[in-house]
């Protein structure tokens, strides 16, 4: 037997809103744990290379890796931007024609 009215759906969205602060908190704690583990590994390497007398080599190597990563990121970013810019400027805007059907074309 149907009464014609539907029950309100606001109750299904309420738990998502309540769990949002918990989700953000868990994500922040997870990020802090990952950062702590990474920092301890780097600090251990710094102590190790300093003990061996090669701290300058370790620092130079890591700064060089960072610089190469930064330069490569900039070059790739410029290439992607140039490609998108060229496609936007020289590409044709393709919109579906109202006379053609949206389905696959079948030639008889």
What do these coordinates show?
The protein contains 2 helices and no strands. It is mainly α and 108 residues long. Among the domains are: 20-53; 54-90. It comes from Candidatus Rothia avistercoris.
Radius of gyration: 28 Å
What global shape is seen? flat
Main β-sheet, in a few words?
A: none
If you average the pLDDT, what whole number results?
85
Helical coverage, percent range: over 70%
Helix-strand string: HH
Beta strand %: under 5%
What structural class do the secondary elements suggest? mainly alpha
The poorly predicted ranges are none
What is the overall number of helices?
A: 2
N-end to C-end Cα span: 51 Å
Number of E strands: 0
Organism: Candidatus Rothia avistercoris
Protein name: UPF0182 family protein
Keywords: Cell membrane, Membrane, Transmembrane, Transmembrane helix
InterPro entries: UPF0182 (IPR005372)
């Amino acid at each position: 037997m149907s009464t014609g009215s539907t029950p309100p759906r606001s109750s299904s969205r309420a738990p998502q809103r309540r769990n949002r602060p918990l989700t953000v908190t868990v994500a922040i704690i997870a990020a802090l744990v990952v950062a702590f583990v990474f920092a301890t590994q780097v600090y251990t390497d710094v102590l190790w290379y300093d003990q061996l007398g090669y701290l300058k080599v370790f620092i130079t190597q890591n700064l060089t890796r960072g610089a190469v990563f930064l330069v490569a990121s900039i070059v790739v970013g410029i290439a992607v931007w140039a490609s998108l810019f060229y496609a936007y400027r020289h590409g044709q805007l393709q919109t579906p024609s109202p006379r053609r059907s949206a389905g696959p074309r079948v030639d008889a």
